[in-house]
Amino acid sequence: AQKITQTQPGMFVQEKEAVTLDCTYDTSDQSYGLFWYKQPSSGEMIFLIYQGSYDEQNATEGRYSLNFQKARKSANLVISASQLGDSAMYFCAMRGRLYNTDKLIFGTGTRLQVFP
Amino acid sequence: DAGVIQSPRHEVTEMGQEVTLRCKPISGHNSLFWYRQTMMRGLELLIYFNNNVPIDDSGMPEDRFSAKMPNASFSTLKIQPSEPRDSAVYFCASSLQGRVEKLFFGSGTQLSVL
User: Fold this and answer.
1) Is A112 or A52 the better-scoring residue by pLDDT?
2) Contacts of B33 in chain A (CB under 8 A)
3) How many whole angstroms separate alpha carbon B99 and alpha carbon A3?
């Protein structure tokens, strides 16, 4: 079975500081993809970053980077230089290819609060 | 270019009524997904289509739920009869088949069943 675990229900960070949101996963697939989405209070789901299981380098997108540790089955999101607008729910998700499915499995999310 | 468009944005209905949620995927996308978000269960996939054909409907809760995709630019999720436990945010998302790393979500429909 596939599973995504986000153990931090809430995180606080001061503006301009970096923050790491944890994500661990469980899968028997050899080929899979990991995602992070942001959900602000307005409710929409915003794609942030993607990491393929065979990608040798950690994915980066602007201030977002994914700390991918395959042996530990972790895919933590690092946000550098936090901004007030980063306050939101953050979801880690995984896609497996075992059954050639495009289905994403989501974690329970982490609520990030950025304070001045 | 317009994103995934869902309607209505909010829906309030009474228990037992039929509810229809609508989705227009991004033009050119041939995979469409319906997700439901609740506090208790988080985000869960209900059903997804490739080229208008349902591929995986294992997440559809029960027979009260049905989804259709009559053409490449339109999909509906219907609940009949609705129950209070169906209250949730329902998201539609679309992508190119096999390119789910480029999955785009609509703004969601907030459904409240009284």
Assistant:
1) A112
2) 102, 104
3) 21
